[in-house]
Amino acid sequence: MSAAITNSPAPNLEPKLKIVIVGHVDHGKSTLIGRLFHDTNSLPEGKVEQIRKASEAEGMDFEFAFLLDALLEEQEQNITIDTTQLPFRTDLRE
Amino acid sequence: MDHLDKLESQSIYILREAYHSFSNLCMPWSMGKDSNVLIWLSKKAFCGHIPYPLLHIDTTYEFPEMLEFREWAVEKYKLDLIVKINEEARAGTGSYTTSIGYETHDPVTVTHELKTVALQQIMGERKFDALITGIRRDEDPTRAKERYFSPRNAEFEWDYKDQPPEFWNQFTTTLEPGEHIRVQPLLDWTEVDIWRYIERENIPIPQMYFARKGEDGLNYRFRSLGCWPITKPVQSDASNIEQIIAELRVTKTSERAGRAQDHHERNAMQKLRAKGFM
To answer: For residue B231, what is the DSSP state?
Structure first.
């Protein structure tokens, strides 16, 4: 790997930063989180394409919430059935 | 307490809770990196002696190097190891009308028959009431919805629509006949955490995780290990753990991208896992 990577500062592992997103049902909590992962370039290769395909299969344009709502039943009904935990990191904090 | 200490102590707590709660535990072991971390944590949790048998579900499509590692580790750790093969499926006898294999069947079918059904067979023989698995939430979106103590019914099904909340570490430990619990001490660990811990503790792992020259002259390593016909390495120059961690901090490829069964169809992992795959 390049020197720039190995020389970048080690990320802080503790303490974690806790963020809570509160909102009314169907007002876009999951969508917002999916959007944050997307806009911070935190999604792995192929994930956007996978979400696009799932959205198309459900007759939608592009559903950011499908990042978290990965179960078929969740995508078909466009709801969150159960919680999902995904790791999120920045250059300075993991 | 640093980050790894917290993860380690939480996992050890889960292992001890499981040992206290169940009378017939078993720990599936794939010889992969997460599996070897589980062995290490089990030894720490129980003063050096692992008080439950290990189980290798041998699909007969194992990399020879992994089998060598298996032999080495059994000796090194003095493991009580059960090796289970779904012989009827491979031979096409018993309830099978045809031999199941990657040469003739799709990866989801083979994974289900040679892993999940093999697991069901040995569970039927040995009546284990809990299985300790090494799955992590960051591997896959359905694993991201898992619990530390995750119930499976007698048909092995995962009721992902009605999971226990596990508030204040209140775990599910009561079972109906035939049911079992998946105990999952590594849920909170990330791939990088696993590598940092392997480095810190100097845990033995198969050498296939480190870069080696391929036939085309480029270097490759395995990020995740499974059956050889459906597991592909990634191009990488990382030949030690420090380099692997540096690589993981910038890569955009997902850990299980090289595992064909995950990507065979939409929600392939959900379908596999709902029927009992780990």
So the answer is: B
Residue B267 near residue A72 (C-beta atoms within 8 A): yes
Question: B213-252 pLDDT, tens per residue?
Answer: 999 999 999 999 999 999 999 999 999 999 999 999 889 9
CATH class belonging to B3-190+265-274: alpha beta
B200 has a chain A CB within 8 A of its CB = no
Residue of B nearest to A88 (CA): B138
Buried b (16+ CB within 10 A) or exposed e, B75-98: eebebeebebbbebbbeeeeebee
- Encode A19-29: b = buried (16+ Cβ within 10 Å), e = exposed: eeeeeeeeeeb
Q: What is the CA radius of gyration of chain A?
A: 16
Indicate the domain borders of chain B.
Answer: 3-190+265-274, 208-262
Residues 86-105 of B with CB under 8 A from A: none
On whether ipTM exceeds 0.85, the answer is no
Question: Would you call A61 an interface residue with chain B, using a CB distance cutoff of 8 Å?
Answer: no
- Residue B166 is encoded by which pair of tokens? 């596990």
Say how far apart CA A67 and CA A81 lie, in whole Å.
Answer: 13
**Each residue of B85-103: pLDDT tens digit?**
999 999 999 999 999 999 9
